[in-house]
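Sync notes, pocket subgroup
Present: LS, DG
LS reminded everyone that the earlier model was apo-only. Rerun requested with zinc ion included. Inputs:
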Amino acid sequence: MSQKEKRYFRSQIYEVDYSRGIIKLKNKLCPRCGKVMANHKNRWSCGYCHYTVFSSS
Ligand SMILES: [Zn+2]
């Protein structure tokens, strides 16, 4: 894990299930600028550089 990735290891990005000891990623990180992307119904979008990726599920 790089220094940059460690900075994003925060509760607003990761959802921690304490009872089961599981950490889930709540949001994707933008592949272009590395910011947290917003989860929409069928897509992820970056509010910083407006990168958008459509999710198949
Ligand atoms: Zn971005």
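DG: The first strand starts at residue 14 and ends at 17.
LS: The chain has one helix and five strands.
Action: DG to write up.
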